[in-house]
Design goal:
The complex is a heterodimer of chains A (282) and B (369). By secondary structure, chain A is mostly helical. Chain A has a single domain, classed as MetI-like (MetI-like fold), CATH 1.10.3720. Chain B folds into two domains: 229 residues, Rossmann fold (3-Layer(aba) Sandwich); 132 residues, OB fold (Dihydrolipoamide Acetyltransferase, E2P). Helices cover 23% and strands 33% of the residues of chain B. In chain B, the strands form four sheets. A six-stranded mixed sheet of chain B has the order 6-7-8-3-9-10, with helices on both faces. In chain B, a hairpin with a 2-residue loop joins strand 1 and strand 2. The radius of gyration of chain B is 25 Å and the shape is elongated. Chain B starts with a strand and ends with a strand. Classes of the chains: A mainly alpha (282), B alpha+beta (369). Chains A and B meet through helix 9 and helix 10 of A and strand 6 and helix 2 of B. The structure holds adenosine-5'-triphosphate (ATP) and magnesium ion. The site of magnesium ion has 2 residues of chain B, from helix 1.
């Protein structure tokens, strides 16, 4: 930072550029592949420059889908993924905000027990409890539904814990000032705690949205009806078609499309992050 | 109207008692300052009045109504916190208006009250700012504004100026005093700064370890401290304390170091032969001619403050005894720039009526001579 040696500047920029290339190259290849005709790719040699089938491929992916794997249009799968990711992110945030609020600000019997119970579930991610959870969801008749896709993933120890840690840093005087101003518990939550948690909520939203979007195993298990397929599992189904060549341009187009919402969320929320880092509001 | 009454107010945290029974009546419009060393229970007492801390025993009444079980918002009080406790995400205006909004005042009424308070506190141009965009003094003012707009019966202040620099503290002190005068609101003000205490208070509560050792006007406390603790706490530099003993028959007072004080003329018959602590303020010691001297000060250090000078040293024993007790440390305060040097030996006499006698054991006041 302090030294200004030209070769050091070149070297560090070189390393950074190399890193960017390593990350970006596969994406470029995927993009290029999504713009060629299937026959161009069948030879096994992937071209490095875009071809002329951009609109055709994307329109086909979005509209009719991949015939050999059930012809579920990508637009429907993206919609399903979006619903699931939003439900998970919003649900997780709402529930953990409320439970952290209860644990930090209210004295009720077995408070610490509650906290530790929530905390212990950190050790039980979906993959570990997948069979019993499946059983419960099946018995409740939630297979092939948005509720079945999202509800079992909503309970979140991580987010509860993060909000708890944040609430603990809010000075007691603020609570007392609100009490003197006559704000009841819900008012305090809505008028003071929520606005103060804004940047935390934004950060968690990004993380949880991507977590929800990238769910693979769970949707694969509980959806048999094509109209509830999500895009991440959809891609996989396209690759492993029986009795046909995988339609690589279509698959790649789907992949590119699948990347858009997470990227959009990150870019859109980035402003809030930076703001949260620059301003210290406490 | 807010008279405040305390009757046998006690506070316990689990098994430890931190307030040991406070009894007091505060009349409407009075400015009461609670002063005492750190940890003596000042904040606890104030927070019990505010309703933020439960009262373990006894009763507090505000305006004639016992408030033990009332929520803070129903006590008609406003509290100014040490670190302001402004809502960081709200503008200055919203900070002041929040309580009024909850109280469901009409919009024009809120607007009017906030604008009026802002004008009074010279905050009018800052109303759109967030607290973090303000200086410490301005934040302090917003905190005051938040208290004023509620138009409460009682202001409570918990060390509101201790985060400000010395100059601003003096200025804000004056402003608080003027504000309280013009609003005529009963105020309870906690501080550990005795200058603040002396200048602001109509009456002063000097607390020590959960006990109100003396409740009186600042000058009465200065002139007639009720205990050795109060005597040492109020007044700067602190009062000198010397070990002494009342002579047989109560006619004379002698320092343990040998020197007679006020010989002959005393009438302390009830204290005859009793060991006492003799207190004398640094400003009441006078440098006199050798033959009038009651004691001598061996000067070790001179501090010149401009308006006056302080000479620190120790008492010279009557017959040269080698090591003195810690109680023979003595400070002398002289007006102006004094011509004293380190190593001087000054003949001293205490002014008339300026010696305070305290019980050596309990520390309570016995007499004045
Ligand atoms: N929640 C608590 N639990 C146990 N003891 C407490 C609690 N709050 C305060 N105390 C004790 O009560 C005593 C009085 O505390 P208080 O805060 O009233 O002191 P203070 O006079 O305001 O001191 P300072 O000038 O440092 O603010 C202290 O000895 C403190 O340790
Ligand atoms: Mg305190």
């Amino acid at each position: 930072m302090i030294e200004h040696r030209p070769w050091l500047v070149w070297l560090s920029h070189g390393v950074l550029l190399l890193g960017v290339l390593i990350v970006a190259f596969p994406i470029w290849i995927a993009f290029v592949a999504s713009t060629h005709a299937a026959s161009d790719l069948a030879s096994g040699v992937t071209p490095l420059l875009p071809g002329g089938y951009l609109f055709e491929n994307y329109a086909r992916a979005l509209g009719s889908g991949h015939e050999a794997s059930g012809a579920v249009p990508v637009s429907l799968m993206m919609w399903n993924s979006l619903v699931m990711a939003l439900a998970i992110a919003i649900g997780k945030i709402a529930i953990s905000l409320l439970s952290a609020y209860a644990i930090v600000y209210f004295r009720f019997p077995f408070r610490m027990l509650c906290f530790w119970t929530i905390f212990v579930t950190l050790m039980l991610p979906v993959e570990v409890r997948i069979l019993p959870t499946f059983e419960v969801v099946a018995d409740l008749g939630l297979l092939n539904s948005y509720a079945g896709l999202s509800v079992p993933l909503i309970a979140s120890a991580t987010a509860t814990f993060l909000f708890r840690q944040f609430f603990l840093t809010v000075p007691d005087e603020l609570v007392e000032a609100a009490r003197i101003d006559g704000a009841g518990p819900l008012r305090f939550f809505k008028d003071v705690l929520l606005p103060l948690s804004r940047t935390n909520i934004a950060a968690l939203f990004v993380i949880l949205f991507i977590y929800g979007w990238n769910q693979y195993l769970w949707p694969l298990l509980i959806t048999t009806d094509e109209s509830f397929y999500t895009i991440v599992m959809g891609i996989q189904r396209m690759v492993t078609v029986a009795d046909a060549e995988p339609q690589w341009p279509l698959i790649m187009a789907t992949t590119m499309l699948a990347m858009i919402p997470p990227v959009f969320v990150v870019v859109a929320m980035q402003r809030l992050f930076v703001k949260g880092l620059v301003e210290t509001e406490k | 109207m807010a008279e405040i009454g305390f009757s046998q107010v006690k506070k316990r945290y689990g098994g430890t008692q931190v307030i040991h029974g406070i009894d007091m009546q505060i009349s409407d419009g009075e400015f009461i300052v609670i002063v005492g060393p750190s940890g003596c229970g000042k904040s606890t007492l104030l927070r019990m009045v505010a309703g933020l801390e439960a009262i373990s025993e006894g009763e507090i009444s505000i305006g004639g109504q016992v408030v033990n079980d009332l929520e803070p918002k129903d006590r008609n009080i406003a509290l100014v916190f040490q670190n302001y406790a402004l809502y960081p995400h709200m503008s200055v205006y919203d900070n002041m208006a929040y309580g009024l909004k909850i109280a469901k005042l009409s919009r024009p009424e809120i607007e009017e009250r906030v604008q009026q308070a802002a004008k009074m506190l010279e905050l009018a141009h800052l109303l759109e700012r967030k607290p973090r965009q303000l200086s410490g003094g301005q934040r302090q003012r917003v905190a005051m504004g938040r208290a004023i707009v509620r138009d409460p019966g009682t202001f409570l202040f918990d060390e509101p100026l201790s985060n400000l620099d010395a100059k601003l503290r003096v200025q804000m002190r004056l402003e608080i005093k003027q504000l309280q005068r013009s609003l005529g609101t009963t105020s309870l003000y906690v501080t550990h700064d005795q200058v603040e205490a002396m200048t602001l208070a109509d009456r002063l509560i000097v607390m020590n370890a959960g006990v109100a050792e003396q409740i009186d006007t600042p000058m009465a406390i200065y002139d007639r401290p009720a205990s050795r603790f109060v005597a040492g706490f109020i007044g700067s530099p602190a009062m000198n304390f010397l070990a002494g003993r009342v002579g047989e028959g109560g006619r004379e007072l002698r320092l343990e170091q040998g020197m007679p004080l006020r010989s002959g003329s005393l009438n302390l018959g009830n204290l005859a032969g009793q060991p006492v602590t003799v207190g004398v303020r640094p400003e009441h010691l006078q440098v006199v001619a050798e033959e009038d001297a009651e004691m001598h000060l061996q000067v070790r250090l001179v501090e010149t403050l401009g308006a006056d000078s302080l000479a620190h040293g120790h008492l010279v024993p009557a017959e040269e005894q080698p090591n003195g007790t810690p109680e023979d440390i003595l400070t002398l305060r002289l007006p102006g720039v004094a011509r004293i040097a380190e190593g001087d030996r000054l003949p001293l006499r205490a002014a008339e009526e300026s010696l305070h006698l305290f019980d050596r054991e309990s520390g309570w006041r016995l007499a004045d001579v």
